[in-house]
């Protein structure tokens, strides 16, 4: 098993941290094409490598709803309706959403009352959205545009390494 080397290393700037984390994710995905296995490992890597997060995982689009996929953290909402919460908004807007304070986000879904900030990256294959990567933090303003760029690169790595069904 590949050792995770980027685990919150304070000596790295964010760009370097995410470059190393992408290498870690890529190494774990090497030789495995299964979508569920790869998203499960990716969620675990992100949850343990990122500082100040209390949930990291995936929701997959099934019909019009987002349905809970592999994750790390407390139990979560199983189904998210069209356009609901940060995850639903990211699907509708087809872009990464960085939310500094979820309590100020209209329609935020509070699965864990400890969450204060959130970032959601849509999973796009061709022109279809197949789901989202969702990461929550108890720290206000935890995520930045640098986090968005880093996580988007990790999602791209995940999508290219996996056989995505659906």
Give the key terms.
6-stranded antiparallel β-sheet, single chain, Beta-Lactamase, alpha+beta, 34% helix, 4 helices, globular
Overall mean pLDDT: 91
Quote the beta fraction: 15-25%
What helical percentage do the residues reach? 25-40%
Tell me the number of structural domains.
1
Task: Spell the H/E element sequence.
Answer: HHEEEHEEEH
Q: CATH superfamily, please? A: GAF domain
Structure in words:
- The protein is α+β, with helices and mostly antiparallel strands.
- Helix content is 34%, strand content 25%.
- It contains 4 helices and 6 strands.
- Strands 3-2-1-6-5-4 form a 6-stranded antiparallel sheet, with helices on both faces.
- Strand 2 (65-73) and strand 3 (79-80) form a beta hairpin.
């Amino acid at each position: 098993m590949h050792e995770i080397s980027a685990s919150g290393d304070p000596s790295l700037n964010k760009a370097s941290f995410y470059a190393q984390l992408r290498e870690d994710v890529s190494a774990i995905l090497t030789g495995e094409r299964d979508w569920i296995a790869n998203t499960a490992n990716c969620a675990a890597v992100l949850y343990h490598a990122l500082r100040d997060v209390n949930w990291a995982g995936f929701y997959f689009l099934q019909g019009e709803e987002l349905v809970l996929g592999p994750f790390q953290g407390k139990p979560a909402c199983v189904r998210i309706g069209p356009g609901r919460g940060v995850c639903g908004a990211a699907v509708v807007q087809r872009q990464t959403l960085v939310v500094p304070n979820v309590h100020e986000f209209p329609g935020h879904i509070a699965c864990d009352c400890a969450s204060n900030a959130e970032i959601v990256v849509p999973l796009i294959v061709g022109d279809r959205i197949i789901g989202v990567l969702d990461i929550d933090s108890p720290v206000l303003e935890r995520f930045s545009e640098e986090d968005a760029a880093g996580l988007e690169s990790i999602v791209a790595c995940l999508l290219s390494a996996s056989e995505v069904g659906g």
